[in-house]
Model the fold of this input.
Amino acid sequence: MKVTVENKKGLNKDLKVFIDKKTISSYMDEKYEEVKNSVTLKGFRPGKVPKEILKRQFGQAIFGEVLDKVLKDTSTKALQENKIKPAGQPKIDLKSYGEDKDLEYIISVTELPKIDIKSLENIKFDEYKVKIDERETEKRIKEIAKSQKNFEDVDPAKVANEGDLVIFDYKAKVDGNEFKGNEGKNTQLEIGKDLFIKGFDKQLLKVKKGEEINVEVNLPENFPEKELVGKKAIFNCKILQVKKPKEIKIDDDFAKNLGAKDLSDLKNLITKQINEEYKNSLDSLSSRKILNEIEKINLDEIPENLKEQEIKILSQGMNEEDLKKSKNEIEKKAIKRIKTGLILNEFGEQNKINVTEQEMQTEIQKQLRMMPGQEKMLQEYYQSNPAVLGNLRGQLYEEKILKEIKSKAKSNVKEISKEEAEKLLKEENEKHMKENHDHHHSSDKKNTAAKKVASPKKTAASVNKTSKVKKVSKK
Done:
């Protein structure tokens, strides 16, 4: 095989590939042997069909298969030997070919630009650590204690007030008639929560142990007996007990009931929990700042074909008038996204970063846990939409790249208060919403170019692995 590089125009170039007919013949002989051992023809024993007979009957089809194999093998090798990473699918233009002829063809390819990733180590970004005030931790513990309310018996002469627990038996009737499910034993209601039937618990105010009281309510829309929905029901209630809320003592025993070793350990766990609540959001903020810095890195050239593809994605759904108005803005955004993706992808390749199947499954399980009751539906959605899985893989790939960049770049650790963290995140969200509003036509394109280009399955460099080329003409 002889390869010469021609017509260099920036990132575009042509590779002229020449393969002599002797090499083509060896490929053909190999294929004929393969066919001979598998084909059955009348009058010939298996494996004994002469080559000339095979050539006459199957020659054209065999040559087509051989030609595809030769093009695949040699085009991949030609690109690799010349250290060319294609930005997109190369095109092949056949110039001369035939079973007993030399093969000559042109590979037209747009090359990915050479990217120096050393500058990524000089990126500066802010990393945030939230300092949780002790009062914030104590406030959270008190909220937990309040949610785990205990009740204690009171003097039978005491009446039920807001916040008290009333325990009662009841029998209900509608229009003087009993109905299915009209009885209840040891029913517990906390007055003020309104968790039974709307307006029911308020009518238990001032009741005492041993009293009987009639409560009138309209049966709700979700009542099981549909013919009774909206009708007035009278509940005859016998009050068994009235209990007052008992203040929970926040001590070591309280902490142990929550799974901590003691109160000091509980405070540490709660502080850590509050910090974790902010960590992911603040880490995303740091990642966004890194991406902003990457956008400032200069690339001499951007592959035109990738730019056109990105513009097409960004302008989806736009009418002609809006497209004209936003043309320059869309082009700038496309270039920015492609550039960011190319830089991240190069960093990922050089640092041998990839997403394992185990990491994919872990992320999918995480997504499933976020939608309780809809796990099966979501699982089926993933299985029937490979593109969604591709986007998820790209997302994980970008996260791993940014994590690695963070470990090598220069971070400025800032310790901030919870209030400062909330303010920072609020400002960033408002800024992000404004950007989305300004680019409302393309704001639904949630996958950044980094995710699109950087995904191992979608990277332009992966042409070297798939070896797929487009044949544009046979002359």
About this structure: The radius of gyration is 36 Å. The longest strand covers residues 232-246. Confidence is low (pLDDT under 50) at residues 440-475. The chain has 13 helices and twelve strands.
